[in-house]
Amino acid sequence: MAARFCLGCLLIVLGAAPAAAQDQSDPDPPLSAATEPSGQSDNEQPLSEIEALRQEIQALREENKKEIEALREEHQQKLDAFAEENELRHMEMEMELLSGLDEEIEEKFTIYGFLDFVFMWTWFREDSIINGLAWDSLTFALPHANLYFRSQLTSDLFVLMELRYSFLPHGNEEEFEIGGIPYRRTDSEVEMPLPHEKFRLGGVAIERAHLTYQPLDYLGFTAGYFLTPYGIWNEDHASPILIPIRYPYMQTKGIVPMAQLGVQIFGRLQPLKRHYLDYAITISNGRGPLDTVHDLDNNKAIGLKLKLSHEGQYVSAAWGVYGYYGEYRDRKKRIVSFSPRFVVEQETTEHYREYVGSADLLIEAFGFRLQGEYVRRLTQYIERPLRAMEYGVGYQPDYVIWAWYGIIYWDLPLRDLLGTVRLGPFYELEYSHSDVTVPGMKSTTQTWGINLRPSPYVTIKLEAAYLRSTDIEELRETNRDFFEALFIGSQLAVSF
Question: In this structure, are residues 305 and 359 in contact, taking their beta carbons and an 8 Å threshold?
């Protein structure tokens, strides 16, 4: 377009130069017949060409202007698109930043938990000792509603607290009617003055509350109220991941303290590939009537855990042991003098040493899970309490209590049919001896059941358990106490 504009200017110069030369050489040329005007003179022709060139130049200017406007508009559109893209990217960066902050906050403090809902029925033999002592009607129940609060203070420092909510102590049986002593049962129902609404008070139990610092894989420290690091069941006690509904006897009886108030040193070593050695050393108040509040003596309980495990692709196995030594002491206070000096005496009412050992085994291979635990405790008295014995009232002798259980579970290979839904039957055999000094304290329990897991967060269980004294016929013949019971129940366990 610029070349065309220069060409037009050159033509104008070339056209104007001959005309000027003609005017200078022949200012007044004569007219002849041959050159008579025929409607357009020689001067008018260059003027028309100039006018045409001017119009062409103007047209070129207009076209150039349109092209400039088009280029300007295209450039503006690109600028607008770039600005919009930059704004979107800025917004995405802000969202990523906010998301990162949310994740950081979420990692720093989390709340989670589990609950279970049970529908059960228990039958007791009419002449069984526990007939009437335990509930035997068809009932719904909500045994667990546990919440966890975890705060990740730093990458190697966190606080964990687990609370268990319950409707208890409402309904707790305190006394049975005997010899003029009335039957008593806890009633926690209260009424608000306004709006005169009645409701029942529940209870909260602290399952654990501790601070943990673990700067290295092989060295960590826990201070507070922690779960005793023994066995399989005690540390993995959330109902959605447990196989049966019923707890084993060693748990319900508390042969080993399920939790301790004190400090723990723990860690994990890896001597070989896929092989690990876990250890834990516990120092605590031990067992006592006030062990979570105050220790009534200066002795501290000590414990040691060792666990060797193999984590393979198809087969995993773990074997662990835990040893515990502690002293139990209870005492009462009595005011013996007010004057001339105020005196309070303290009398020990019960004092014993306990030696506890446990072992556990877990094998997982090709959908099968085999687990078992064994616990044994020896109790040696220093100050013996009085108790009701077979021959009358007497002093409690030293005794041994032990128990074991074994569970085999099969995760059925139905992934192609059920997808992520898991289905598995199980069988459990349990044996316990509550007190070797008392006849009839040996018992066995057999449990059959099936677990359905429609999702990783939900477990539906159905089981039947048969409990009986091992020497039931001998006990009946000698008119001694025995028990026999059948338990049928279902459970819906949910983690959240």
Answer: no
